[in-house]
Amino acid sequence: MFMAGAFGELVWAYFLRHLPLYLALILLFVSGLGFGAVATHKLSPVQRDDLANYLSGIYTSLADHSGEAASKGEAFYQSLMDNVVKTTGLLFLLGLTVIGSPLILAVVFLRGFALGFTVGFLVQETMLRGLILSTACILPHNILMVPAILLGAGGALSFAATAAKTLFGLSKDGISGQLASTTFLSLCSGILFVLGAWIETYLTPVLAQLSSGFLI
What we know:
Blueprint: H1 2-17, H2 19-39, H3 45-64, H4 69-97, H5 102-126, H6 128-137, H7 139-167, H8 176-211
Helix pairs in contact: 2-5, 2-7, 4-5, 4-7, 4-8, 5-6, 5-7, 6-8, 7-8
């Protein structure tokens, strides 16, 4: 009990110390959401028709979705590769390189842009149906995946900043403690991504079927 309380205090102290960084990352992500939503207005009629036809296919598949275990397993594996390996792993490696740390900001912005564009187009194109589809199919797993991105990015940027200060002689503190913190945050990010991938693969189809009656 005492160790759990002490660990909680350490985590809380860490986030308080890095609060400006995480607020900046949240602002960057929200900016990506806004730009993504605005970008839907820049689509050409042909692009809009293609996406609308794709949405129609989604509506049809929701009504007839049966979801075989094999296909769900493949989808879960692909989600793990895209999020845990390609996102958390990439953020961690970019932080370790220090010089690649600016690309971490690009990853956060682009993830926000993609989410904002998807939700914006759904709501703009199909109004209430898009809102229902976004709530059922996009919101559940992103409740975990968005914090996962912010945790991974914040840890990687913290390490890059500490390492840069040490390299330029601006700080005499070692980087081993920050490396441990960054590794821990990356692990937490990966766990959140795994849980989000499970929700996206196994829970989202159920929610989509429950909401498909409102999409007709």
